[in-house]
Amino acid sequence: MVTPLGKQAADRQGADRHALLRFGAAWGDGAASALDARLALHAFLARGPRTAPAAIPASLAVDAELVVSELITNAIRHAPGPCELILRLFRGRLAITVRDSSDEQPTVRTGDRYRVGGHGLRLVHTVSDRVAVAPRGRGKQITAYLRLAPGSGTSEGMGDGAEQAVLAAG
C-alpha cells in the first residue's frame, strides 16, 4: 500500500512547522524492491523544494538514494515479511526510516576490502548525520538522518521518541 504523496503533503502542511513533508509506503511479504523505494524517494525529493525553506542539494539526493537502497535491501535480505519506508523532511534534515519484521539488531561491520558484501550499513553510517535503531512490537525500525546543509538543525529532538540505540561504526 502506498499513500499518494500529494495527499500526505497536504495533510501535514501547517500541522507541524518542523514536519514539512512526509511520505510512507508499505510492502507485503516479498513485494518490496530497492527500485520502488528509490522511485518513492525521487518523487518525495521533487516535492521538497515546494515545501522546504531551502533547496535540496544534489549531494543530499545522492546520499539519500544510497541510504534508501541499502536499508530496503537489508530489510529484503534479512527480514522476511512486510516492510515500510517512511520519509520525513523537517528542521533542515531528511529522515529516512525503514521498518522490518526482524528482531535482529543490525551491526556495522568493520571494513574489509576483500569481503564481497556487508558494507551497506557502514556506508549508511558514513553519509548520515546519525543512525538510530529502535525495536518495535514485531521487528525494528532503522532511521538515518541526513543534514540538508551544513549547520542546518541539530540531532537533538529529531526522532519520534522510539529510537533507543544509535549505531556506531566499529
Strand order of the largest sheet: 1-2-3-5-4-6
Query: How many helical stretches?
Result: 4
Q: How would a crystallographer describe the biggest sheet?
A: 6 strands, antiparallel
Percentage of residues in strands: 15-25%
Structural class: alpha+beta
**H and E string:** HEHHEEHEEE
Rg, Å, rounded: 15 Å
Helix content: 25-40%
Shape: globular
Low-confidence stretches: 1-17, 153-170
Overall strand count? 6
Residue-averaged pLDDT: 76
Task: Please report the distance between the alpha carbons of the first and last residues.
Answer: 37 Å
3D architecture notes:
This protein is α+β, with helices and mostly antiparallel strands and 170 residues long. It contains 4 helices and 6 strands. Strands 1-2-3-5-4-6 form a 6-stranded antiparallel β-sheet. A hairpin with a 4-residue loop joins strand 4 (130-135) and strand 5 (140-147).
Set down the secondary structure blueprint:
Blueprint: H1 5-12, E1 21-27, H2 34-51, H3 58-78, E2 83-90, E3 93-100, H4 120-127, E4 130-135, E5 140-147, E6 165-166
In brief:
Helices cover 32% and strands 23% of the residues. It has 4 helices and 6 strands; from the N terminus they run H-E-H-H-E-E-H-E-E-E.
Task: Give the tags.
6 strands, 170 residues, 4 helices, alpha+beta, single chain
